[in-house]
Design a protein that fits this description.
Blueprint (H helix, E strand, L loop, with lengths): L2 H29 L14 H19 L34 E2 L1 H5 L7 E5 L3 H13 L2 E5 L11 H11 L4 E3 L2 E8 L4 E7 L2 E2 L3 E3 L1 E4 L14 E3 L4 E6 L2 H4 L6 E7 L4 H5 L6 E7 L5 E8 L2 H13 L4 H5 L10 H11 L10
Length: 342
């Protein structure tokens, strides 16, 4: 990747992650109510937000333009809608002002009252997270049953349980028609072969098709949504077609003291070990701040750490990192804080 392309990619990520941090802050404010602390609803000054984002991008580009090619850019994997199914005439979709792709969406042209996300993957869920926090009612239409087609069913199901209060998700969807007015887009679609009521949206975001499952073996997957989803290495889905011998360990975060005090019990840490040499070959986590502990999993996989290596590493208490320790102890059959798996 040349310097200009690398710099463009990183400045785009700066803007996206600034917006996602803002969304996380809004969720924290709203979530404080469950702990007996109430704030008034945030006032959204869209012009001020856009000015701050422009300033961040300008500062980043100015500081890094001479050595951008040497920067480490985390791959944006999972931005796949798996070729979202449509029976509609799409000739004019790409040029309509209320149909957005990624760059249009993160430019924040306006906050739609009702937003449709067409497609699955990281881009889809991150844009949904941003606009839902800003006040939009978000509906997500996906071809299959999973928000993250690359990942295993257990991670997807846990994620869907968490976000069902945030988004309306329509699985096995097919778009049958796009109809345009001056200020809205009408979508006609089916879900699980049943026709959905025709709906008018103030904007429609189309997720791009990019990644494949094979990327998970070499590049980290991270959706900085609420909650965050991370993964690196082999998945169960991939291993069903491989001769490797393996064992899966899941640690629900409700077993962690830190997660309970943070009201963050919907999370999950999942590790996959090669049972022949006991090395970690796949792993990830889902939950608020999952990205903060994901580095240990990446380090362990890259360096071919065994379960022994992980259990003999100090894990501070109380932290979310302990979920990785517990998963390794469960694999070995030495865990005392949770029930060992047979």
């Amino acid at each position: 990747m040349n310097t200009i392309k690398q710099s463009s990619c990183n400045t785009r990520m700066i803007r996206t992650h600034a917006l996602l941090h803002m969304a996380k802050s809004i969720h924290s404010i709203r979530g404080a109510k469950s702990q007996g602390i109430e704030y008034s609803e945030p006032t959204i000054d869209l012009a001020a937000i856009k000015q701050q984002l422009d300033t961040l991008e300008s500062q980043y580009y100015s500081a890094n333009q001479h050595y951008a090619a040497s920067l480490i850019g985390t791959a944006k994997l999972g931005n796949s809608n798996r070729g979202f199914e449509t029976n509609a005439n799409t000739a004019n979709i790409a040029v309509h002002k209320h149909v957005w792709h990624y760059n249009e969406a993160i430019a924040l042209p306006f906050i739609p009252e009702k937003l449709a996300i067409v497609g699955a993957g990281i881009d889809a869920i991150e844009i949904a997270t941003i606009y839902q926090a800003l006040g939009a009612n978000v509906e997500i239409l996906i071809t299959g049953d999973d928000i993250f087609p690359e990942l295993d069913k257990d991670i997807n199901k846990t994620f869907l349980r968490y976000v069902k209060r945030l988004f309306k998700i329509k699985p096995q969807a097919v778009i049958t028609a796009f109809n345009f007015t001056e200020n809205q887009v009408q979508l006609c679609a089916t879900s699980k072969t049943k026709a959905l009521p025709s709906s008018n949206y103030d904007a429609v975001f189309i997720a791009d098709v990019q990644a494949t499952d094979d990327d998970l073996l070499t590049q980290p997957f991270m959706a900085t949504s609420v909650p965050t989803v991370t993964w690196l290495g082999w998945t169960e889905k991939q291993l069903t077609h491989n001769s490797l011998n393996y064992k899966v360990v899941n640690i629900p975060w409700r077993s962690l003291g830190r997660a309970n005090t943070d009201i963050n019990t919907n999370g999950l840490t999942k590790l996959i070990f090669n049972t022949d040499d006991h090395t970690l070959i796949g792993g990830g986590c889902m939950g608020n701040n999952a990205d903060e502990i994901f580095g240990e999993i990446c380090l362990a996989i890259r360096n071919k750490f065994t379960a022994d290596n992980i259990t003999h590493t100090v894990h501070a208490h109380p932290t979310l990192h302990e979920s990785i320790l517990l998963a390794s102890e469960v694999y070995k059959g030495t865990a005392t804080d949770v029930m060992n798996q047979e």
